[in-house]
Amino acid sequence: MVADISRFQQILTSAKSALIVLPDNPSTDEVASGLALMLSLKASNFPVAVSCPSPMTVEFSRLVGVNQVRADAGDKNMVISFAEYPAENIERVSYNIENNVFALTIIPKPGFDTPTQNQITASYAGVASDLVIIIGANYPNDLGAFSQTLIKDILEGQARQNLTLVGNKPLAGWPKSVELIDVKSTSTSEVVYQIIDQLKLPQNQDISTNLFLGLEAGSKNFTVAGVGANTFALAAKLLENGAKRGQIIEQTFKSNQRSRQVDQQNNPQNLEPKFKDTTIL
């Protein structure tokens, strides 16, 4: 049973939007569980976004919704910066609004060139959501590039009372938060399933697929210590809900097949009997 679930339900009822944050270099389990929670909240017509300080790699491509993961920690403010342009070359910055069009003017010091269009970078910063859900980060430093700015934004923003931590490992170093933690679970996906199930949030094939892939990865194909009847019962339930696992089976088969082919090419002696005068059955 996940602790603080009642408190989280109260927060979810009153919150206007949520930001789900994944840790730096996340595992398949962490990405899968974060996306599953996002899909379930979206199916409830609840505004939600997912951010991660690390880019999504090809290993996550089979997860539903991975293309919706953002690289910034919030969209409250737009930040315009100039890459490889010395700040000391700028004399002043002004803005003007004409015909309902906002114009920002960068005025360089005499004798210096203006920034080029290729040097202009627009990004976002600041957490606008009043609910921040952090997935699988045991310590604040696990958020990588987000660790300092995000915590500062949370403590100074609307989400300071609604910081929620989700995972299956003990936590340390966090400010006051709602802890949806179950250390008896073998994966974060199991914890997220409990949240979705206990709050009666929507479940569909895409959500079940992500949770199954996360469960399978987090439990290392159901081999880690702690895997038991509840783990297999959840796997069966997700499959009953339409979870797709054929992609993993096919990918594993092809990977093993390629490994055998390479091994046979590089080590033809592997095809010979191990002992003289014996035969391969």
Strand content: 15-25%
Mean pLDDT: 82
- The CATH architecture of the largest domain can be given as Alpha-Beta Complex
Count of helix runs:
7
The share of residues in helices is 25-40%
Instruction: Give start-end ranges of low-pLDDT stretches.
Output: 248-265, 270-281
Explain what the structure shows:
With 281 residues, the protein is of the alpha/beta class. The chain has two domains: 5-75 and 126-240, inorganic pyrophosphatase (n-terminal core) (Alpha-Beta Complex); 77-124, no CATH class. It contains seven helices and ten strands. It has helices at 5-14, 28-43, 147-156, 188-198, 205-218, 229-240, 246-266; strands at residues 18-21, 48-51, 69-70, 77-82, 90-98, 101-108, 120-125, 131-135, 163-167, 178-181. The chain has a six-stranded parallel beta sheet with strand order 3-2-1-8-9-10, with helices on one face. A two-stranded antiparallel ribbon has the order 4-7. A hairpin with a 2-residue loop joins β5 and β6 (101-108). α2 (28-43) runs antiparallel to α5, α4 (188-198) runs antiparallel to α5 (205-218) and α5 packs antiparallel against α6. The protein is elongated. The termini are far apart.
